[in-house]
Write a structure and sequence with these properties.
Largest sheet: 5 strands, mixed
Number of helices: 9
Distance between the termini: 21 Å
CATH class of the largest domain: Alpha Beta
Order of helices and strands: HHEEEHEHEHHEHEEHEHE
Number of domains: 2
Strand content: 15-25%
Number of strands: 10
Length: 289
């Protein structure tokens, strides 16, 4: 709040604007009973924070993670608001999530959860209102389930309500790697300013949609990636890792720690490993010093 107040003051605006920016316009929270494949009934909570729509429809991802809660989606939707406005993109800020560990659910269960999530928010989203997208532990397939459910509910095909869909559902080529590629472009520009060589040792925490593609693009462009990690742990080799081989291992359903030519480390150790550039590409709140 203090930073927002300072920015408002520096811009010569009235204090009331700081008060507006500190509060989301709407937060949707719901819980639904869910029957698992085993017959067990569990209760699942979902969220959608619609923070600010001054510049256009709310825009932001939907994540599936056991740490998802109301405070997190509000904070992330606030950051989406600032991110879009700083880049002059005509969208507001939104973020959603479901409080589950998706690794503990079957594909069929995840589809049913995704469709139920849409049934709880469909009246408050749309191409001119709120446009969700993939985020942590969600992907193009989950977006396809969601847009299909939404279209059934509104009685017409509405591909534009969700981004990050498969190509045959109106998705865009390069969407999966877009965030990682954007990070690469920023790093390249920073490297030029600071005269960083391609022999620089780079560590990437997180090997999901962002970290995996960033590590691959760095590797393909001749940079030395010495450490990567996923939810099970990390690996380190001061001489560099073969990212393509690690991607093949991950895509087969294994962990980066199954890569043979590296030392096994924890995610915490990766943050302190010997490197010149550290990229935290997993969850937020990883760095505290």
């Amino acid at each position: 709040m203090d930073l927002i107040k300072k920015a408002i003051s520096d811009l010569g605006l009235e204090p009331k604007y700081a008060e507006r920016l500190e509060r989301p316009e709407r937060v949707i929270e719901f819980t639904f009973p869910f029957k698992r494949d085993s017959g067990e009934v569990v209760f699942i909570t979902g969220y959608r924070s619609q923070y600010n729509s001054a510049l256009g429809p709310y825009k932001g991802g939907i994540r599936y993670h056991p740490n998802v809660d109301r405070a997190e989606v509000i904070l992330l939707s606030k950051l989406m608001t600032f991110k879009n406005s700083l880049m002059a993109i005509p969208y507001g800020g939104g973020k959603g999530g479901v409080c589950i560990n998706p690794k503990e659910y079957s594909k069929g269960e995840l589809e049913r959860i995704s469709r139920e999530y849409v049934r709880n928010i469909y009246q408050l989203i749309g191409p001119h209102t709120d446009i969700p997208a993939p985020d942590v532990n969600t992907d193009a397939e989950i977006m396809a389930w969601m847009v299909d459910e939404y279209s059934k509910l509104v009685g017409k095909q509405s591909y534009a309500t969700f981004t990050g869909k498969p190509l045959d559902k109106g998705g865009l080529r390069g969407r999966d790697e877009a965030t990682g590629r954007g990070a690469f472009f920023i790093m390249e520009e920073a490297f030029k300013i600071h005269n960083v060589s391609k022999n620089t040792k780079i560590a990437v925490q997180g090997f999901g949609n962002v970290g995996m593609h960033l590590a691959r693009i760095l590797y393909e462009n001749g940079y030395k990636v010495v450490a990567v990690s996923d939810s099970k742990g990390g690996i380190y080799n001061s001489k560099g890792l073969n990212i393509n081989e690690i991607m093949n291992i991950k895509n087969s359903g294994k962990s980066v720690q199954d890569y043979p030519d590296a030392e096994k480390i924890t995610n915490e150790q990766l943050l302190e490993c010997k490197c010149d550039v550290l990229v935290p590409a997993a969850l937020d709140n990883q760095l505290h010093k």
